[in-house]
Amino acid sequence: MDARALAKSLHPLETKVLLRYGPGDELGNGRLAAELGYKEGQSNQAFSWLGAKGLVEESGRSTRVVYELTPLGRELAEKGTPEERMLRHVAGNGPAALPELAAALGLEQKDVGSAFGQLSKEGILAMGEGKKATPASGKPSPRMEAVRALLERAAASADGILGDETLSVPEREAMAGIAKKRGAGDSAFRVAERETIVYRLSAAAPEAAAALRELGVTGEEIGALTPAMLESGSWKE
User: Fold this and answer.
1) Among positive and negative, which fits the CA dihedral 41, 42, 44, 49?
2) Which of 38, 155, 176, 177 could crosslink 43 through cysteines, CB 3.0-4.6 Å?
3) Which residues pair with 179 in a beta bridge?
4) How buried is residue 63: exposed, middle or buried, by Cβ count under 10 Å (0-12/13-18/19+)?
5) pLDDT tens digits, residue range 191-218?
């Protein structure tokens, strides 16, 4: 297929990549998201189509650890962790027995017991007279503040995902206590590994890009693509 015919066969997702980048550029989903506004599915599809036409080549792969906010994590971000809720309750209502805290906060007694154990260890709450939880320091620990920051940052992001490389050492230590790799239904985050593929345009790409410019195609013809359209190729019809 000559360059002009090839250019006519390209979808706008492919066209925008060819017109924006050169053979020396390293391309991945993150770059296309930041610079072209592509969603992950659009980036994957563009690379798949371009690869099938010999216009991009894989130049490297790497694996990164990410933390995905779970439904429980979103709830904790909104309502507070058991530790935060217990601390607020005791600060506002005075000392309370653990069963009383469980009933007042709508928490499982095991969760209240576990949270109190951590709060006691950190010197935030103590077991006082009548076996009631009472303020010690009464202030959130650095670990609690780190957990709160992680929950809020993930909840505010578009996909609820935090990359391990973006975390500070205290945040990684805090994350270790609220994330699980498997069976994460009772954890705030699920630990996952994601493979990142880096692509480069092939030697044939500049000729295809030149043909696109000659045809006056810009790539702005792109419309809303559903997953079904991407799979079936109905956008060509």
Assistant:
1) positive
2) 38
3) 189
4) exposed
5) 999 888 999 999 999 999 999 999 998 8
